[in-house]
Amino acid sequence: MKHRLFDFYASKSWAILPESLQEMYDIYRTAIDRKALDIDFDPEAVSAKTGVRLDNTRRVEIRGDGVAIIPVMGPIFGRANLFTEISGATSIEMLAKDFNEARENTRVKAIIFHINSPGGEVDGTSEFAQHVFNARSEKPIVAYASHLMCSAAYWIGSAASEIVAEETASLGSIGVVGSVSLDKDKKSVQFVASQSPNKRPDPESERGKSQIQRHIDDLADVFIDTVARNRGWTAAEVIEKGDAGNILAGRRAVASGLADRLGSLEGLIAELSDPQIRDEKINKQKMLSTSSANTDADSQTIGANEMADEKDKTPADKVKTDALPPRDADKPKVEAASEKQDTAEVDKLKADKAQAEADVKAKDVELAAERAKAEGLEKRMAAMEKKDRDTRFGIVAKDWSGDKAVHLDMLEHFATSEKDGENSARFKAYVTQQNAHTEQLRQSGLFKEIGSSSAVEGSADAEWEASAKKLQAESGGKLTIEQARDQVWAGNAELRKRYNAEIN
To answer: Tens digit of pLDDT for each residue in 353-411?
Structure first.
């Protein structure tokens, strides 16, 4: 019978969702496994896949012996909206209500989050994950990844006391992504108060990018720290085990630690329907909580509770426990082979990681060499451009009076700091001013000789230049020669009078 049904599954082409076909197979496989262990089962109960709806909930179903199935399907939103109603996506708002009802209902002995979600909104996810984490010592809470348990879905699933994954499920994507819309054609213009420039960061500016990136990183820190707490890791281990936000499938997820083991939903329901297995899970969770709190009194209380539980177990419970062997003893040859395969995969992952790190280092060396080469070329080009400017400026200022080095510095400053360079208004104004001044001096006959840039000794211009140099020296270099000249001119009325008389 078993082989005929397997042949039937394999020989047909199915126009059906893969999840539904997998569910059909899981139900059948669970029935066969339990019958092989001489455990009575009711085919009609097993085939009742939809279960019984839990009162006062929207999607929660009770299967087996008090096992509540809470679906987390599709994209996750903070609140219920039209999209979640039409598409069957999940809202944290309704998920929290369903979870609270299952948590408080005495009919519910264990809870399974049936997760098939690529993730969703950050809002509300952290708070709900904390809610799940706080309830793990009350009832067994298991996250089952049937296809996708990524990003926000993994955030929630990690809060359960155990993560069980279907062999082809994909888990991980631990991180946060943000996007900013750049509307180039918008007709409206926004004005932001000068006191609050960070209210509307500009994503096209370095400052805006930095502000937005910092916000995304802060959210990711909350995500990573929560997963670290839930799984008993450090933040660095979360990044390492999650392969820096990558998605890991089935066995690789288990080998990395993102999931605890592989399994099927129907097998998990059958397992959590067993009172002793439920008790073992609760006691284990309490012991972990006590170990974390590190209090002797709590440890003694748990030990007494475990002894009382063992004493209160009925013969029927013990028979049922004996009939269902622990998972570690089930199919030892298959598990040994699986463990060997997992070890080989881990070794390969380590080798791949080492090779990738070596490749990155080699690439860094190559990039450093390219950067050094580019910087060298940039410096050479800058030096050539400056040499070319010095030649041009030397020609422009060759007949100007005063300190030639100061004039060249001023021309260099305007040419390199102004937006339009040598075509800027300030550059042209300075050239015009100095040319006019030179022409006045030439006409006044105050040059020692035609073409000389030195003022005649004893003239007002010579006294002005000497006084400016002295004032600049006394300032300890705080004043430029032009600033010193301006101060001398403003503070010496007699000098101004003589100078104007000489040039006129």
So the answer is: 888 888 898 888 888 888 888 888 888 888 888 888 888 888 888 888 777 888 888 89
Which regions of 305-392 does DSSP assign to beta strands (E)? none
Percent of the chain with pLDDT over 70: 71
Report the interhelical angle of 460-474 vs 493-503 (nearest 10°). Answer: 140
Listed in sequence order, the residues at least 6 apart from 184 whose beta carbon sits closer than 8 Å to its beta carbon are: none
Buried b (16+ CB within 10 A) or exposed e, 78-98: bebeeebeeeebbbbebbebb
Yes or no: say if 46 and 90 are a contact pair by the CB < 8 Å rule.
no
Tally Cβ neighbours within 10 Å of residue 390.
Answer: 13
Dist CA 504 CA 500 (whole Å):
6
**What does the pLDDT look like over 287-303, one tens digit per residue?**
877 666 554 444 444 44
**Do 89 and 74 meet the contact criterion of CB atoms below 8 Å apart?**
yes
Q: Is 238 exposed, middle or buried (0-12, 13-18, 19+ CB in 10 A)?
A: buried
Rounded distance, CA 388 to CA 382, Å? 10
- pTM listed for this prediction: 0.49
- C-alpha closest to that of 95 among 108, 78, 109, 111: 78
Q: State which amino acid sits at residue 155.
A: W
Residue that has been written with the tokens 């006294």 in this structure: 463
Task: Tell me the one-letter amino acid at 96.
Answer: A
How far is the C-alpha of 335 from the C-alpha of 264, rounded, in Å?
Answer: 16
Lowest average pLDDT, out of 45-49, 271-275, 287-291, goes to: 45-49
- Looking at this protein, which amino acid is placed at residue 203? P
Does residue 99 contact residue 127 with C-beta atoms inside 8 Å?
Answer: no
CA angle 304, 310, 314 (to 5 degrees): 145
